[in-house]
């Protein structure tokens, strides 16, 4: 990997385009290096993973509304939308599928200086691949780039410190991935990246306080914007530049300011794009920093015994976990039993309480209003707090994969004064966890979430196509979706009509 120094430059300062971060990223996108077998296999896993969580969210209101918007934009050749037949304008297909994938917060993750769900790259890049009649190898190359760029930006540039939402790294990565997919020139991809970043910077209020359905829509919008940015760049339209380093650019005014320096690693010329191998998926439908605490709670419950005897629980964890999903956030909503699913998903106190009581986690039952409002759950929930531990923060930011951790140490104090202590560094499903996810686990996750939604024969067809992604010919990428019966679609709530 080659590390690039990125900082603000005054307008009067000599700063050639070839030195801009957006240009360096575009060069990575145009590097035709072969994708390794390991990367290709993991991309297939994540295509399956995305479809699994989309199946589970198919009749939830935000997904139904996004799908209805896409259905108002039919197009030929177009792109597919999860759950239904037909083809639709690629930017709207990317939008609808992006919401379906993101709604349950149940797909892959990469955490470093910033947070990310790099699987958000798949809907826009796949939509363009289908529309443009590309083959499986083109798709694999495009997705390898999308994952690489987003993960490399996440390694180096912290957004949340400045209250900027993490999708600001997704717009550029999706634009770069689409550029690779289509074999565009460096100049065109450079302009698309600049446009995509300029249009996807927004505040983190979407993940603060009373969290709404926009949490799922935000990355879908970034993917839609990336498709549109590439379209404009292909027509010869330009972007603000230098977008990161300009005197009035993103670094100067939205991030660390004119004096801040960032060190962004990118693959060198001829170096394989392997970043996807550093990311990890979720076994549980909850914010990634809750994955290890869920497994920890399940492990500790037998040692605790009678949960009514608990006086207090303190989760010693990283700064990120403490301030984003813990009591360090200062959000009273994280203790509100009537809060939205999106809010409960970002309360490690609620999640630890339910996992401790139930010994399991379910993407629907664990968030049901009647579950959140149980008096014994509310009582236990309010006994839980988080505390930042410098060692967990250090491990969170470690670049050593054997040391990097997203877990916690739980101290459960009983009314008798006895203290029960245990800790877990990574989730069981993590590559270094007790039960690492491999192809069989991805397929099992798909089967579980598709049960009662997708007919078994359609499950078989999709899984067969997904596992043959690298071999699919031009025009065959429409197989990387699924349809469901009208009876399943009829389970969706009635929604109001919009403009379309």
From TrEMBL:
Q: Does the keyword Lyase apply?
A: yes
Task: Tell me its EC number(s), please.
Answer: 4.2.1.3
A molecular function (GO) term? aconitate hydratase activity
Domain MmgE/PrpD N-terminal as annotated: residue spans: 20-262
Pfam families on file: MmgE_PrpD_C, MmgE_PrpD_N
Which residues does the UniProt record annotate as the domain MmgE/PrpD C-terminal? 284-467
Q: What class of enzyme is it?
A: lyase
Which UniProt keywords are present, listed alphabetically? Lyase
Q: Which family does it belong to?
A: Belongs to the PrpD family.
What's the protein name? Answer: 2-methylcitrate dehydratase PrpD
Taxonomic lineage: Bacteria, Bacillati, Actinomycetota, Actinomycetes, Mycobacteriales
Gene expressing this chain: prpD
């Amino acid at each position: 990997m080659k590390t690039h120094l990125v900082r603000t430059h005054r307008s009067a300062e000599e700063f050639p385009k070839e030195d801009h971060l957006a240009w360096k990223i575009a060069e990575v996108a145009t590097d035709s290096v072969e994708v390794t077998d390991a990367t290709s296999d993991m991309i297939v896993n994540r295509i399956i993973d995305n479809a699994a969580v989309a199946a589970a969210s198919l009749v939830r209101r935000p997904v139904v509304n996004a799908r209805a918007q896409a259905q108002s934009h039919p197009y030929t050749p177009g792109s597919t939308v999860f759950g239904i037949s037909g083809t639709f304008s690629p930017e709207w297909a990317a939008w609808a599928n992006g919401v379906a994938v993101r709604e349950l917060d149940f797909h892959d993750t990469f955490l470093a200086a910033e947070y990310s769900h790099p699987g958000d790259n798949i809907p826009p890049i796949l939509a363009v691949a289908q529309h443009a009649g590309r083959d499986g190898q083109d798709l694999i190359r495009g997705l390898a780039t999308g994952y690489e760029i987003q993960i490399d930006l996440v390694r180096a540039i912290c957004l949340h410190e400045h209250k900027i939402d993490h999708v600001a790294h997704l717009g550029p990565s999706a634009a770069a991935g689409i550029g690779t997919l289509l074999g565009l020139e460096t100049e065109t991809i450079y302009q698309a990246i600049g446009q995509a970043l300029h249009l996807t910077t927004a505040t983190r209020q979407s993940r603060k306080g009373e969290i709404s359905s926009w949490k799922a829509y935000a990355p879908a919008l970034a993917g839609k914007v990336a498709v549109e940015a590439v379209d404009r760049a292909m027509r010869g339209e330009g972007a603000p530049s230098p977008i990161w380093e300009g005197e009035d650019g993103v670094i100067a005014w939205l991030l660390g300011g004119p004096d801040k320096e960032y060190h962004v690693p990118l693959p060198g010329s001829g170096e394989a794009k392997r970043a996807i191998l550093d990311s990890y998926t979720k076994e549980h439908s909850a914010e990634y920093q809750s994955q290890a605490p869920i497994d920890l709670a399940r492990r500790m419950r037998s040692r605790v015994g009678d949960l009514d005897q608990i006086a207090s629980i303190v989760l010693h964890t990283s700064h990120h976990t403490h301030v984003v999903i813990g009591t360090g956030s200062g959000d009273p909503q994280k203790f509100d039993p009537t809060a939205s699913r999106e809010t409960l998903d970002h309360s490690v106190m609620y999640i630890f309480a339910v996992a401790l009581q139930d010994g399991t986690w379910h993407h629907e039952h664990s968030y049901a209003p009647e579950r959140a409002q149980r008096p014994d759950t509310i009582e236990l929930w309010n006994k839980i707090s988080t505390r930042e531990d410098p060692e967990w923060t250090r491990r969170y930011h470690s670049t050593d994969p054997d040391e990097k951790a997203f877990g916690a140490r739980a101290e459960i104090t009983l009314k008798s004064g006895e203290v029960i202590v245990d800790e877990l560094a990574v989730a069981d499903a993590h590559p270094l966890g007790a039960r690492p996810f491999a192809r069989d686990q991805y397929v099992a996750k798909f089967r579980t979430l598709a049960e009662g939604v997708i007919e078994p024969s359609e499950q078989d067809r999709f899984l067969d196509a997904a596992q043959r992604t690298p071999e699919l010919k031009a025009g065959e990428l429409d197989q990387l979706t699924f349809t469901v019966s009208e009876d399943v679609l009829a389970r969706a709530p009635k929604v109001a009509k919009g403009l379309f």
